[in-house]
Design goal:
7 strands, 2 helices
Length: about 90
């Protein structure tokens, strides 16, 4: 389903198979299982809860395996398109 310019307040948000464009999420819980999704130009405020299941949870567990040393952290950061300052994260 496609949502545009909608405000969600204190709602469970299923990310899989949905598009969220220019939406606002206030105090929402997000659940992602690894399916196709799109969130663009969205604003997230207040409290936040993230839950992964299925393929998304498996991917998170796989990436976590590499977080035990600097080279692994840098590799994971690269895959995620993030930069980690030298010395790792604290």
């Amino acid at each position: 389903m496609r949502y545009e310019r909608k405000t969600f307040t204190a709602e469970p948000i299923v990310v899989d198979d949905n598009e969220y464009l220019d939406c606002t999420f206030e105090d929402c819980s997000f659940r992602y299982s690894g399916g196709k999704m799109d969130l663009q130009r969205c604003n997230i405020t207040g409290s936040l809860n993230l839950a992964l299941a299925g393929a998304a949870e498996n991917t998170a567990r796989f990436l976590r395996l590499f977080m035990g040393n600097e080279a692994g952290r840098l590799a994971v950061a690269s895959v995620l398109g993030m930069e980690i300052p030298s010395g790792g994260s604290h």
